[in-house]
Each structure stands twice: as structure tokens, then as C-alpha cells.
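About this split. The held-out portion is used to measure sequence recovery: a designer receives only the C-alpha cells and must propose an amino acid at every position. Recovery is the fraction of positions where the proposal matches the reference. Here is one held-out target exactly as it appears in the evaluation file.
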């Protein structure tokens, strides 16, 4: 946890401090995986309306327990297994971790039965990392024409997670490459693809991501403390 976040003894204090470091245009997503309902309610009381979860089942249970807070926006930020696509569509407003054409096509098939198109981000992997999912730049550019045919999805942006162990300069360069990739995609006249959102930056690098143009940051530890 960063030094400034330790000054805030409460979740509300941490939310306030983090807000001071973010432009108003950047959406703060509180990563609440393995976080208690009580802590989530504290964050909600402090103004948080966006919560990110990594597992469909955990999100289902939490959404049920927080059903008295109907204005929460739920974000899936973890890897989505293909056999959980339908359940994910029922729980989440945003799916940040669409990491392959196969998964996108499966989401599109199931989304046909819903009135509201799910908002998704395409997960890209700018640097080699065996622990991360996502398109390479070349593979994504190859698949864009097929992605543009998926009429039941709202393709809103790109998401990336950086490998561990990078220097600040390397992080900035990777985030800038993500922004440049989004800019290059937007220059073409797509029918459905609108990659205006950049979901990038976590507790240890979100200020660098914001510097590079992030529109959504995913913060967990800096907000809620270390998980068990």
C-alpha cells in the first residue's frame, strides 16, 4: 500500500485521498474480490458506485446481498471461463477481460437474448507474460474485422494488465502503447467498435496509467488493504 493511503484510517479517507489524484473524467473501480460486504458498503457510502470482481460466483452472491443498492455498476475484471458466459451476462454491466475472439463470439451469441448489450473491453497483452491472458497487438488487429460483426456486443475499449517487475519508465511505455493502439483502431471506420475507454492501472501503477490516458483504473489493495 502506498504511503499516502495509510494516512486515511478509513475506507472513506482512502477514497477521498485517491480522488485527489484522479481527474474527474477517470472512473474509479473498487476491486472488491475477497472484500467483505461491510467494507463494500463503506466504500459505497464514500461515493463508490463501480465495483470490480474476478469471479462470477462471488459477484452473484455479493450482488444479492447488496440488492438494496441498485445503482452499483458491476465490472468483471478477471478471466472469464467460457462455461460461465451466460451467468456473467446476468451479473455484470461491464466485462473488461474479453481476451479472445472465441470468447467474444460466445458472449455475442448469448447476449442476443438480452435487451441491453453488454459493454466490453478487449484485453491486450503488450508485453510477454505467461501469467496474463489477452490478444497480442498483431492478433487483435487481425481479428478486428470479425469483432466488428458482433452485433450484440458494445465494444467500448481496451484493457491491459502489466507484468510484474517493470520500472516506472517501462510501465509508462506499455500504457502509452495501449493508448496508441486504441487511437489507431479508432482511426478506421468501424461499424460497431468504439474503443474510447482505456481500462488500465492498478494500486501500484494507476498514477502512471492516468498519465498515459487511462479512463478507468482498477484499485483494490490501496482502497481496502491487503486481502487475507
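Reference sequence for scoring:
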Amino acid at each position: 500500500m502506498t504511503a499516502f493511503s495509510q494516512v486515511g484510517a478509513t475506507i472513506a479517507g482512502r477514497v477521498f485521498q485517491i480522488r485527489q489524484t484522479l481527474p474527474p473524467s477517470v472512473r474509479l473501480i473498487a476491486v472488491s474480490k475477497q472484500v467483505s460486504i461491510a467494507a463494500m458498503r463503506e466504500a459505497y457510502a464514500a461515493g463508490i458506485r463501480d465495483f470490480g470482481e474476478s469471479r462470477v460466483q462471488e459477484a452473484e452472491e455479493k450482488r444479492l446481498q447488496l440488492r438494496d443498492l441498485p445503482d452499483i455498476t458491476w465490472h468483471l475484471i478477471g478471466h472469464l471461463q467460457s462455461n460461465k458466459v451466460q451467468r456473467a451476462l446476468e451479473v455484470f454491466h461491464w466485462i473488461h477481460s474479453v481476451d479472445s475472439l472465441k470468447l467474444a463470439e460466445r458472449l455475442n451469441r448469448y447476449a442476443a437474448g438480452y435487451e441491453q448489450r453488454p459493454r466490453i473491453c478487449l484485453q491486450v497483452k503488450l508485453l510477454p507474460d505467461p501469467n496474463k491472458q489477452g490478444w497480442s497487438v498483431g492478433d487483435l488487429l487481425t481479428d478486428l474485422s470479425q469483432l466488428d460483426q458482433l452485433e450484440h456486443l458494445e465494444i467500448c475499449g481496451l484493457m491491459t494488465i502489466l507484468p510484474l517487475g517493470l520500472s516506472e519508465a517501462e510501465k509508462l511505455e506499455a500504457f502509452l502503447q495501449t493508448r496508441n493502439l486504441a487511437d489507431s483502431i479508432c482511426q478506421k471506420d468501424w461499424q460497431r467498435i468504439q474503443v474510447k475507454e482505456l481500462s488500465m492501472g492498478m494500486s501500484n501503477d494507476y498514477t502512471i496509467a492516468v498519465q498515459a490516458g487511462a479512463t478507468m483504473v482498477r484499485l483494490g489493495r490501496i482502497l481496502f488493504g491487503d486481502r487475507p
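Annotator remark: The domain at 3-224 is CATH 3.20.20.10 (TIM Barrel).
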